[in-house]
Amino acid sequence: MFPVWKGVFRRQKASKLESDMPCRPEEIPVHVAVIMDGNGRWARRRALPRAAGHHAGMLAMREVIRAADDWGIKVLTLYSFSTENWKRPRQEIDYLWQLVDEFFKLDIQELVERNVHIRILGDPSQLPLATQQTIARALEQTKANSGLTVQFALNYGSRWEIVRAVQQIATRIEELEISVSDIDEQMVSDALATAGLPDPDLLIRTAGDQRISNFLLWQIAYAEFVFVDVMWPEFTRQHFYSAIQAFVARERRFGGLK
Ligand code: IPE
Ligand code: IPE
Ligand code: MG
């Protein structure tokens, strides 16, 4: 039940920052998306199995969800498993599904109490049945919640999502419901898994690599990118706080002039 490496992860100390907002409420990004990378490298540096890195990564994710809620962020999108991650060893993939189960079982109560609304981006049909059921329960339990929306990108790929959107729109044309000239940006946005939500304002990627890895390609058109060197399991509320402060310091022009 409790993996041997559990003691390795040190819970971050509570600090004064915990209750503080990183900026004025009106400056807080509405939607933050995170590429949670570096679990494997974190583990390797400690001579631990990659699974230990993923477990520690789950604990970091829990704290980031809490912080986002405490600070009044409206949407948090967490890249948890990409369509390309199927290339990994079966054992690692199986452990990741086990972790999804564990996370929802342990945290659902708190998420419900925090009025969190859970959404899944991606195709869950390829996941183990038990995991699909756990996810379905979590969606059901939080569907009426009006607080922070947490989107888990699970078996998600932006190209998969765009292909699906094109197919959906093409079908509507084929069925003579719409014509080609009806297609506009809003229609494309509405055909994506993120339909109805604002685009990310801030995209954070941990672990030093500066790439997108097939994440939210359409939606990040005007997102501010913050790349941080720390591995995901080491990413604390303080790092999150700094990323938001970096975002606030940027001048967003959206192609216009200031
Ligand atoms: C991110 O950490 C988690 C997933 C992709 C599931 P990685 O497992 O990619 O960690 P690194 O990049 O190998 O260090
Ligand atoms: C991106 O990380 C996917 C997730 C964080 C779930 P990867 O580790 O899969 O990305 P690459 O392979 O380094 O581009
Ligand atoms: Mg990685």
TrEMBL record:
Catalyzes the condensation of isopentenyl diphosphate (IPP) with allylic pyrophosphates generating different type of terpenoids. HAMAP family: ISPT. Signal peptide: none annotated. Binds 2 magnesium ions per subunit. One of its GO terms (cellular component) is cytosol. SUPFAM superfamilies: Undecaprenyl diphosphate synthase (SSF64005). Gene3D superfamilies: Decaprenyl diphosphate synthase-like (3.40.1180.10). This is Isoprenyl transferase. InterPro entries: UPP_synth-like, UPP_synth-like_CS, UPP_synth-like_sf. GO terms for molecular function: ditrans,polycis-undecaprenyl-diphosphate synthase [(2E,6E)-farnesyl-diphosphate specific] activity; magnesium ion binding; manganese ion binding. Substrate binds at residues 38-42, 50, 54, 82-84, 86, 88, 205, 211-213. One of its GO terms (biological process) is polyprenol biosynthetic process. It is an enzyme of class 2 (transferase). The keyword Transferase applies. Its cofactor is Mg(2+). It comes from Sulfoacidibacillus thermotolerans (Acidibacillus sulfuroxidans). Its EC number is 2.5.1.-. Pfam families: Prenyltransf (PF01255). Keywords: Magnesium, Metal-binding, Transferase. Homodimer. The active site is at 37, 85 (proton acceptor). Belongs to the UPP synthase family. Mg(2+) binds at residues 37, 224. It comes from the Bacteria.
